[in-house]
């Protein structure tokens, strides 16, 4: 024990506490009970109701324990102490009095928080059998919202309406009403409007609805309590995926897929993770994730998780397996679940994916019927997450049916939905599924600068391999000071040439030793160079996990097929490709975030091989192009200061980039400085004169336009 000198505080060691408890238990049972009863009542009087409930239960005083548990159980659930809440509910059931509606509310909240929808639905139906459901709903907005949520997930719309008819208004009910738009059109002719988030448990209803309705502009915050983190993180990952920020979503998924304390994180396993892995092209991992998600969804038993997992599996079959028959089998199985098609968003996505499978098999007429139904339903209920997908597929189906005007209208619907989402990612995925839709639109556009041409160029530019860790986390920092980390541990090779070997293999793939001698040693093939190459290979092998480097004696050298190493240069290219799918300020922010990777310094600093020079020049060109694109976007957004800063950075790195000079002239004109426009032009003219050329006609024409 410890004393505070001159005070009245004594702190006992935990062992001393355990010793006193052991002594207590040696007393006669009636004395122990009396002491615990007195202690429990004292704790209750001091407002420590959770502790009081535990002590009174030990004293075998369930009625008094219930009084304290009743006041503490919501706080216990909020701090994610589910075992305690479950034990109280089970133990105290015999003493719960009639009319204890708040206790029923706690039971509902526990089931909701744990995503035990079947249990929550059973509680609601038990109240209905007792004739108490409406009374409970009228007594508590939160209880009504909890029951309403359960009924929505079971497609029991009439029961949902009955509960809402007697419930008091409030933020919880508003959140569940918003979520109801996923199941049916709450007010025909109107559109769903999200209520403000409150930081409470019903924010999950808003997040789920935001995602499945396609409201992708505002990412959920990933901070706060453990419960809030567990709720927000899966939907943040889902929205990043849907916006096309796949690399960032993969990174967050790898961090979050360990066991979290909040069951909402199970959505990662049921469908968010599988769908993300499909987007990332990681077929084997996606297969395994889909199977695990199916197991969890079947154990849950509610309709939405089963449907969501089936959609991820169907996308895997269609986009990675290239097997429309398998996709139809998956969707048939899911559609056969009773009431599955009574949920509006599920029925629409069933029809969308089934429509693609039918098109791929040449069954055009039933595909057209499915896709017309999907697009009409999505537009009527303003559920636009997969509207770009459904509308692109419909454009193909209409064209095959000889309805060219209908095909154009469907393509326009897809484009409009993507613009509302603030991202072209889902649209471009659908166009990649049926590229003929894009080809026909490009052929019909008079201008090479049309949005369809831009989408075509962006689609062609895809093909950057996404990187993420499947097992060990291996990160290669190849900008600035080079380093290699394996599961967070720095691995410093004894030979600096190891970094260059690793970079070459990541860039070019499997390589013969002759090719490596040519790339890393300037074509030298003497005994000294060969010995140095062997030392370099062995040095890199020592730094990587076992069997990560495949280099048989005298054979080719490669990174093992099941090993993915995250290099900063590959992350840069991945993130720039993802940023290109976004629009407006989101695209600017994503581009600038990606460019931070290149701010650490030169690619493979101090390496001077010819292949390094080529790779370095390629990356520098990508960085400058992206920075100039961001400057143009900033100018369009009216952020002249940022546009000017980015333009100057481009010219500092490449003063001969005439398009950047034209940008600076336009910015200066908008700043109201006509003399500055001339200065920018003269600076361009002077710079180009150094290499014996003059400004292009478009630059001179711009000068005349800006001086008018």
Provide a descriptive summary of the structure in words:
With 708 residues, this protein is mostly helical. It folds into five domains: 27-186, no CATH class; 203-342; 343-462, Serine Threonine Protein Phosphatase 5, Tetratricopeptide repeat; 474-568, Arc Repressor Mutant, subunit A (Orthogonal Bundle); 573-707, Tetratricopeptide repeat domain (Serine Threonine Protein Phosphatase 5, Tetratricopeptide repeat, Alpha Horseshoe), CATH 1.25.40.10. Helices cover 67% and strands 3% of the residues. The chain has 35 helices and eight strands. The strands form three sheets. It has a four-stranded mixed beta sheet. A two-stranded antiparallel ribbon has the order 1-2. A two-stranded antiparallel sheet has the order 6-7. A hairpin with a 2-residue loop joins strand 4 (483-486) and strand 5. Helix 3 (49-58) crosses helix 4. The protein starts with a strand and ends with a helix.
Quaternary organization? single chain
Classification by helices and strands: mainly alpha
Radius of gyration: 32 Å
Low-confidence stretches: 463-471
What coarse outline follows from CA principal-axis ratios?
globular
Strand line-up of the largest beta sheet: 5-4-3-8
Quickly count the domains: 5
Beta-strand content bin: under 5%
Tally the beta strands.
Answer: 8
Measured as a percent range, the helix fraction is 55-70%
First CA to last CA: what distance? Answer: 87 Å
What value does the average pLDDT take? 88
Per DSSP, the total helix count is 35
The description of the largest β-sheet is: 4 strands, mixed
């Amino acid at each position: 024990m410890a004393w505070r000198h001159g005070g009245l505080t004594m702190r006992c060691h935990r062992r001393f506490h355990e010793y006193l408890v052991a002594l207590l238990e040696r007393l006669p049972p009636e004395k122990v009970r009396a002491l615990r009863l007195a202690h429990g009542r004292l704790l209750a009087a001091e407002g420590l109701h959770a502790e009081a409930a535990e002590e009174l239960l030990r004293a075998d005083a369930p009625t008094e324990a219930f009084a304290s548990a009743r006041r503490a159980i919501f706080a216990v659930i909020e701090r994610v102490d589910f075992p305690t809440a479950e034990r109280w509910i089970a133990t105290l059931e015999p003493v719960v009095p009639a009319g204890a509606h708040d206790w029923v509310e706690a039971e509902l909240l526990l089931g909701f928080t744990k995503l035990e929808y079947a249990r929550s639905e059973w509680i609601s139906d038990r109240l209905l059998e007792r004739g108490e459901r409406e009374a409970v709903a009228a007594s508590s907005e939160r209880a009504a919202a909890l029951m309403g949520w359960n009924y929505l997930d079971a497609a029991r719309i009439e029961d949902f309406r009955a509960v809402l008819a007697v419930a008091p208004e409030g933020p919880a009910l508003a959140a569940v009403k918003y979520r109801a738009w996923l199941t049916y059109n709450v007010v025909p002719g109107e559109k769903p409007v999200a209520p403000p988030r409150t930081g409470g448990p019903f924010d999950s209803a808003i997040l789920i609805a935001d995602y499945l309705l396609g409201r992708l502009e505002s990412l959920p915050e990933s901070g706060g309590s453990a419960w809030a983190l567990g709720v927000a993180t899966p939907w943040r990952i889902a929205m990043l995926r849907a916006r096309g920020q796949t690399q960032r979503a993969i990174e967050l998924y790898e961090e979050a897929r360990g066991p979290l304390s909040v069951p909402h994180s199970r959505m990662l396993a049921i469908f968010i993770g599988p769908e993300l892995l499909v987007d990332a092209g990681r077929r084997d991992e996606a297969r395994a994730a889909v199977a695990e998600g199916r197991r969890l969804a079947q154990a849950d038993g509610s309709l939405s998780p089963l449907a969501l997992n089936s959609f991820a599996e169907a996308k895997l079959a269609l986009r990675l397996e290239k097997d429309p028959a398998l996709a139809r089998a998956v969707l048939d199985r899911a559609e056969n679940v009773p009431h599955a098609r009574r949920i509006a968003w599920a029925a629409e996505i069933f029809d969308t994916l089934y429509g693609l499978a039918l098109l791929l098999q040449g069954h055009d007429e039933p595909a057209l019927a499915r896709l017309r139904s999907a697009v009409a339903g999505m537009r009527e209920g303003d559920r636009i997450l997969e509207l770009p997908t459904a509308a692109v597929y419909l454009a193909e189906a209409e064209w095959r049916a000889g309805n060219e005007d209908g095909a154009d209208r469907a393509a326009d619907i897809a484009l409009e939905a993507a613009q509302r989402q603030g991202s072209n990612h889902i649209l471009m995925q659908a166009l990649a599924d049926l590229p003929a839709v894009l080809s026909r639109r490009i052929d019909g556009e008079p201008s090479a600068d049309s949005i369809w041409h831009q989408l075509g160029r962006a689609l062609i530019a895809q093909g950057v391999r996404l990187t993420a860790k499947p097992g060990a986390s291996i990160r290669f920092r190849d900008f600035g000071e080079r380093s290699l980390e394996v599961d967070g541990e720095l691995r410093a090779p004894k030979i600096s040439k190891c970094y260059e070997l690793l970079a070459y293999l990541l860039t070019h793939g499997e390589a013969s030793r002759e090719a490596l001698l040519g790339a890393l040693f300037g074509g030298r093939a003497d005994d000294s160079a060969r010995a140095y190459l062997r030392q370099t290979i062995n040095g890199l092998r020592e730094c990587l996990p076992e069997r990560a480097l495949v280099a048989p004696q005298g054979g080719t050298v490669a990174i093992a097929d099941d090993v993915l190493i995250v290099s900063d240069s590959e992350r840069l290219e991945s993130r720039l490709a993802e940023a290109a799918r976004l629009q407006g300020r989101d695209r600017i922010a994503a581009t600038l975030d990606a460019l931070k990777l290149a701010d650490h310094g030169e690619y493979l600093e101090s390496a001077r091989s010819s292949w390094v020079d080529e790779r370095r020049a390629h990356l520098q060109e990508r960085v400058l192009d992206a920075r100039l694109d961001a400057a143009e976007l900033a100018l369009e957004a009216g952020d002249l200061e940022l546009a000017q800063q980015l333009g100057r950075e481009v010219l500092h790195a490449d003063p001969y980039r005439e398009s950047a000079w034209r940008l600076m002239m336009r910015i200066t004109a908008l700043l109201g400085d006509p003399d500055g426009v001339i200065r920018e032009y003269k600076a361009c003219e002077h710079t180009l004169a150094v290499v014996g050329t003059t400004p292009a006609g478009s630059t001179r024409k711009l000068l005349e336009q800006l001086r008018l």
